[in-house]
Amino acid sequence: MAIGMNDLKNGLTIEYSNSIWRVLDFQHVKPGKGGAFVRSKLKNLRTGAVNEVTFRPGDKFEQADITTRPMSYLFAENNGRVFMDVETYEQVNLPDDKIEAALKFLLEGMEVKITMYGNEILGAELPSTVSLKVTETQPGIKGATATGSGKPATVETGATITVPDFINEGETIIVNTEDGSYKGRA
Question: Residues in domain Elongation factor P C-terminal (predicted)?
């Protein structure tokens, strides 16, 4: 289905410039002189690159048919990860470079959404928050509050997260998977 600049909205996936893009942000601009246009921020779902693109009134593009399938992470294998479709039990091996951002918070048995364009796998979408065990950090400070500057902590997946001073090794914390920030104790 061909769509134009007035049909853009956040989250829409389009086929543009020989790739698949997700609209992250857009703004209709009507200057005092000249025609209206749309300034948009697009994320390439194949490479992860974010570009700013300006669309003019005559520009047309196709809406991309993106599907998501729930899959469970099983184990690491060579340079990839093995996932199982929770409905069909079919196993799929995804290369690490396709899901690089998700690897910091991926645990065995975790259910993720795999994004697909036809038969091409574009990536993995984690839940918005995950509970992870702190494996290494400095000892907690008695009487410390959450408003302090924080300290680095390594979690069971190997990622390093800034946590409040009162968090100790062995505690389970909730982490935001989008920005890697501490959200609280589990």
Answer: 130-185
**Per-residue pLDDT reduced to its tens digit, 93-119:** 888 888 888 889 999 999 999 988 988
Nearest to 127 by CA among 105, 97, 96: 105
Q: Which two tokens stand for residue 60?
A: 């047309």
Name the pTM for this structure.
0.74
Count up the domains in the chain and report the number.
3
Q: CATH code at 180?
A: 2.40.50.140
Asked if 141 and 172 sit in the same domain, the reply is: yes
pLDDT tens profile 114-155: 988 988 888 888 999 999 999 999 886 666 565 667 889 999
Three-state DSSP state, 103? helix
Q: The domain containing residue 159 runs over which residues?
A: 129-185
Q: From residue 34, how far is each of 7, 8, 29, 30 by CA, in Å?
A: 21, 21, 11, 8
92/47 same-domain check: no
